[in-house]
Amino acid sequence: MEDEILTPPPIGPFFRFPDEATGMAALEAAGLLQEDEDGNKSPILASHTHALDVIGPIQRGGEWDEDGTVITPPEVLPGWHFNYQGVVPDEWLQYAVTPENPVRIFF
Hints:
The chain is mostly beta strands. The chain has one domain (14-32, 42-97). Helix content is 9%, strand content 31%. The chain has 1 helix and 10 strands; from the N terminus they run E-H-E-E-E-E-E-E-E-E-E. The strands form 4 sheets. Strands 4-9-1-10 form a 4-stranded antiparallel sheet. Strands 2-3 form a two-stranded antiparallel sheet. The longest helix is centred in the N-terminal third of the chain and has 10 residues, at 20-29. The radius of gyration is 17 Å and the shape is globular. 10% of the residues are buried.
């Protein structure tokens, strides 16, 4: 039997929402939040139909000394981010981005 060459699934899509409230509202509208007994809502990270990788704010760079004291703070990039595999709701398409160098890939 010949070995099969497997191709990895496509990377992305990547999503950048203006802020956490907008991103969480999009997840809620898509039915991708669960509520605990205290009423706190959190994303459903995986099911038989989707996988979700919540990144949140992205920071790049920064410098710290040996004690962990910040010498140069990292740059906080605009937005609140997540990666998603599954059927993408049409409402999310306006937030899809294609970064040149993704901070985190999800496949």
